[in-house]
Amino acid sequence: MAFRNDFLWGGAVAAHQLEGGWQEGGKGPSVADVMTAGAHGIPRRITDGVLPGENYPNHEAIDFYHRYKEDIKLFAEMGFKAFRTSIAWTRIFPQGDEEKPNEEGLKFYDDLFDECLKYGIEPVVTLAHFEMPFGLVKKYGGFRSRECIDFFVRYAKVCFERFGHKVKYWMTFNEINNQCNYESTHHLFQDSGLIIGEGDNKEALMYQAAHYELVASALAVAAAHEINPELKVGCMLSMSPLYPKTCKPADVMTQVNAMHKRFWFGEVHAYGKYPAYILKHLERRNIRLDITDDDLAALKAGTVDYVGFSYYASYVVESNEENPAYDYNENRDISNNPYLPKSDWNWTIDPTGIRYALNWVYDHFRLPMFIVENGFGAIDVKEEDGTVNDQYRIDYLAAHIKAMKEAVEYDGVDLLGYTMWSPIDIVSASTGEMKKRYGFIYVDKDNEGNGTLERSPKKSFEWYKNVIATNGEDLQ
Ligand code: BGP
After folding, report:
1. 373 given a catalytic annotation
2. Which residue among 15, 51, 379, 395 has its CA within the 20 to 30 Å range from the CA of 432?
3. Which domains are assigned to the chain?
4. How far apart are the first and last CA of the chain?
5. Atom of ligand 1 nearest to the CA of 174
6. Dihedrals φ, ψ of 159, to 5°?
7. Ligand 1 atom closest to Cα of residue 436
């Protein structure tokens, strides 16, 4: 059998994308609460607080806050062994800088995790999944400020102490490396709570914020181990591998540089120090970061136990004559792979890429891995009889699981589990749409917020149930 007997099959979500109840139980606003709905090609806007007349899709989301029992029951019916979600930081520390946590928020997660455990489903928890308190953005400029390290560590410790006996697998910052595309205001805001002003050097700010987050993450890892040595704390990378466009040596070197710029975050998480290529890059760019000796010691002492990553698609990069040093620029050098089909949102479909990603990550970090996101966003059509025939989703997932199995069986990578994104339809992180559906469970709600929120299984529901029952052997 390819997969270990205790392989963690399941699904993954993030609090802001499904919970709703954005002001309930003492919750404060997060960065997700001030992002309007966008669409494919129409970016979400970031507003200065919650403004009247705007459509904020995360405020209600799919109302998991009130319906989680019904949803967990459906996950249990599919045989889930694991459920990855995040704790909404603002349920625990509504503004981010309080001394004491909000008991009502803690109680919600106690109940949620108990509900999972009742069915033998192991909760896998991300501490910061694009959910920084908006209070920290307004008051401190988000992770521009070193003070946010302490706020995050305080929050992390509260969670480890309270839930450490219920949750073994943790992750610190979701897709911390998305912000390598520092031209994207969206990524800078979601990852680090950065709002860019005139005269700001976006690249320098990104490196500084990422440094503070890496230190915060390392301090959290060390604290978790001190609180309970059984806890496993991982990092979480967005793993979109890049291929050289051709075998021209310049394309290959551009690809090497691009992989450096995208995945150096993982090096710091795994080895507790900065790789030479990033130090050289900062020097060349004349970027001087606030890095103290204590920071360097913290990074060393808080290396991660495993590498969690998301995989959806791969891309290609190409050299150009104006860039003889092969210095990768995310906006300029990246494109879609012409050999691959694409989703309606223009994301390529590349099952081999997941095997490549597993090998690449394992070769680099030699740590156990956890695929904590992989899925297919599509426009689902509900038939008259209420069914959704999402064969395309089954095809996508089956092909990816097959390639993942090959990585385990042939290449011998160490894989802990697979939580597909997202077992139930939720609000899209990039576009804010409901229309971009990923679920095995359909949720009756549209982009404008209309619908009964009723849940119903799609065709893929039974399919995944069988995949889990056969430990990934039967993918038909
Ligand atoms: C990842 C995020 C998730 C999730 C997923 C799918 O980047 O970690 O939060 O949403 O991508 O993306 P989207 O929802 O934009 O389709």
Report:
1. yes
2. 395
3. 8-469 (3.20.20.80)
4. 17
5. 8
6. -70, -45
7. 16
Cβ 35 vs Cβ 54: under 8 Å: no
Q: Whose CA is closest to 353, among 397, 391, 315?
A: 315
Provide mean pLDDT across the span 387-405: 98
Ligand 1 pocket mutation, candidates 239, 421, 434, criterion most atoms within 8 A of CB = 421
Is residue 330 part of the annotated active site? The answer reads no
Rounded distance between C-alpha atoms, residue 258 and residue 244, angstroms: 10
Cis peptide leading into residue 460 (ω within 30°): no
Structure token digits, residue 382: 């509900």
Q: Where are the alpha helices (DSSP H) in 40-102?
A: 64-77, 89-92
Q: Give the rounded distance of the alpha carbon of 171 from its chain centre.
A: 9
Which residue's alpha carbon is nearest to atom 11 within ligand 1?
A: 429
pLDDT at 321: 83
Atom nearest to 430 CA in ligand 1: 15
Return the residue whose CA atom lies nearest to atom 16 of ligand 1: 428
Is the previous residue joined to 422 through a cis bond, with omega within 30 degrees of 0?
yes
Distance of CA 230 to the CA centre of its chain: 23
Nearest CA to ligand 1 atom 5: 429
The alpha carbon of 374 and the centre of ligand 1 are apart by a number of angstroms equal to 9
Going by the DSSP 8-state scheme, the letter that residue 257 receives in this structure is: H
Query: What is the pLDDT averaged over residues 140-149?
Result: 98
Q: Nearest 5 degrees, angle CA 120-CA 78-CA 129?
A: 70
Query: What is the per-residue pLDDT for 332?
Result: 84
Q: What is the pLDDT of residues 329-349, one digit of tens each?
A: 888 889 999 999 999 999 999
pLDDT, residue 329, reads 85
Give me ligand 1 centre to Cα 35, in Å: 15
> How many C-beta neighbours within 10 Å does residue 163 have?
20
Report yes or no on whether pTM surpasses 0.90. Answer: yes
What's the pLDDT tens digit per position in 290-307?
Answer: 999 999 999 999 999 999
Side chain identity, residue 168: K
Beta strands 415-421 and 242-244 are unpaired
Q: Give CA separation, 365 vs 170, 304, 359, in Å.
A: 18, 10, 10
Q: What share of the chain is helix, strand, coil (3-state, %, to 5)?
A: 40, 15, 40
Ligand 1 pocket test: which of 130, 174, 310, 343 has the largest number of ligand atoms within 8 Å of its C-beta?
Answer: 310
Half-sphere exposure (Cβ direction) of 418: Cα atoms closer than 13 Å: 27
